[in-house]
Design goal:
The chain has helices at about 5-20, 25-45, 50-70, 75-110, 125-140, 150-160, 160-165, 170-180, 185-215, 225-255, 275-280, 285-295, 305-325, 325-350, 355-375, 380-390, 395-405, 410-420, 425-435, 435-460. By secondary structure, the chain is mainly α.
């Protein structure tokens, strides 16, 4: 089940809201959320919901044992159980997500013919594994108190609102809210508006951008000239942004509807003027997770230049692999590692002397190119598409439009994608609503219209699942 489906919007969510608000006690509310969350996950993963339940139960007890040894003054045993917990969680992730990839890579390297087969990937496994790890590690570090209520902990770890594609919510962020949150009408209303905003991003913009991007990248690279490939790359850049930020908006909105405050995951990344700035704005919860649980333990910035470069390479190769078991993701991670090293040691010192417009153009060209590496899993096709982008080849636009007769109707949505990738509209709307109650009512009414239009789009089109579901 996904947020942008009629089943979720018309059946699952209304039923959950009704039952949730009829129940009074906090523990019972958590039981309702847990039950619906497990059902939500089992809707698409009836077998793998057991994998999640096993992970939750195992790490519940690991955290209790770690806390016991911490309190008992036995740090060596606490550390031993922390390592066991990490190995256990990562082993499940590695087996289901990377085992086939590793086998295929090794057999190809050794020139051995072997059919590894396919292993279904449990959706959202990367997200809930990282949440489990953050909880156990923070208990070990004594940053959070161990949760002795398994219902409460399971509610956090299986929360349907952000389980499938983030944001990665750390236990420390909502530990108090699990027991003491307060649901208010104002919070519910704000959450509903945020949900509608994300819903529209996904249905109206991301799905239409996907039509153009697929027309380019699902076909032979040699049949697309430079202009068409660049336009396709821009379309995919908008698709992945509105797809993922739309999901995050819906998740944050749903959290507010049930009394939770999830962290922001995007801050208009496409207005960034450097790659360093871009990664402070894109998928913030993942960047900060890697910073706190991998980059800083490796030494962070307080190391020699060579060690710092090594740390960045390690973090970004793992970041690439986190996104998928394919060599293009490894190359994508290396691509950003080298760019960030280049910026950190050379370019950032010169940025003050470079006009803001040129810095912005530089950043756009970098991340649009990066999304091509991210999008095309076949290395041969990926290099051909990149070649088409940077070695000019005339585009046969008429032939492209004739073969792909569904792309012309989506062209106007590029305008919407550009407009809403910057904060101007939101700022103007917010200020107008502050100054005038009429403007506030108009803004709310427009959201209703946008929601109805999104439903019409959803009913009348084929559905695209969220890109980040497979991570």
């Amino acid at each position: 089940m996904v947020f942008s489906s009629l089943t979720f919007v018309c059946v699952f969510l209304p039923l959950l809201i009704l039952i949730y608000y009829l129940v009074k006690s906090r523990n019972n509310k958590n039981i309702i959320l847990l039950t619906f969350s497990l059902f939500f996950y089992a809707w698409g993963e009836p077998v793998y919901v057991l994998l999640m339940i096993i992970s939750i139960i195992a790490n519940y007890y690991f955290a209790l044992i770690i806390n016991k040894h911490n309190e008992g003054g036995n740090p060596k045993k606490a550390r031993m159980y922390l390592i066991i917990s990490i190995v256990f969680s990562l082993s499940l992730l590695i087996y289901f997500k990377y085992a086939v990839f590793f086998i295929q890579s090794i057999t190809a390297l050794l020139n051995i013919e072997y059919e590894a087969g396919n292993l279904p990937l449990p959706i959202g496994i990367s997200f809930y594994t990282f949440q489990i790890l953050s909880y156990v590690i923070d208990v070990y570090r004594k940053k959070v108190a161990v949760n002795k209520n398994i219902i409460s902990l399971a509610t956090y770890l299986s929360m349907f609102a952000q389980l499938i594609a983030g944001p990665i919510v750390r236990y420390i962020s909502i530990s108090d809210e699990l027991a003491l949150r307060e649901e208010t009408l104002a919070g519910f209303y704000e959450g509903l508006k945020r949900f509608i905003s994300g819903f529209a991003k996904k249905i109206i913009i991301a799905n239409n951008m996907a039509i153009f991007a697929d027309a380019v990248f699902n076909n032979d690279p040699s049949k697309s000239g430079t202009l068409i490939v660049w336009t396709g790359a821009i379309a995919y850049s908008f698709q992945i942004y509105y797809d993922f930020s739309g999901y995050s908006d819906m998740a944050i909105g749903l959290g507010k509807m049930f009394g939770f405050n999830f962290p922001e995951n995007f801050n208009y990344p496409y207005i960034a003027k450097s790659i360093t700035d871009f990664w402070r704005r894109w998928h913030i919860s993942l960047s900060t997770w890697f910073r706190d649980y991998l980059y800083i333990p490796l030494g962070g910035n307080r190391v020699k230049v060579k060690t710092l470069a090594r740390n960045l390479l390690i973090v970004w190769v793992i970041t690439g692999l986190w996104h998928g078991a394919s060599w293009n993701y490894v190359l994508w991670g290396l691509y950003y590692a080298l760019l960030l090293i280049f910026e950190k040691f050379l370019l950032l010192k010169l940025f003050d002397k470079i006009p803001a417009l040129l810095r912005h153009i530089y950043t756009i060209s970098i991340f649009v190119t990066g999304w091509v590496i991210f999008r095309v899993e076949s290395l041969n096709n990926m290099f051909l598409f990149l070649r088409q982008m940077f070695i000019y080849n005339k585009s046969n636009i008429n032939e492209f439009l004739f073969v792909n007769d569904n792309v012309m109707p989506v062209m106007p949505y590029f305008v919407l994608a550009v407009i809403f990738a910057a904060p101007l509209i939101n700022k103007v709307t917010y200020k107008a609503a502050e100054k005038s109650s009429i403007a506030a009512y108009a803004s709310d009414f427009s959201l209703i219209i946008i929601f109805l239009v999104s439903i019409i789009f959803l009913v009348g089109s084929t559905f695209n699942p969220f890109i980040y579901f497979r991570f």
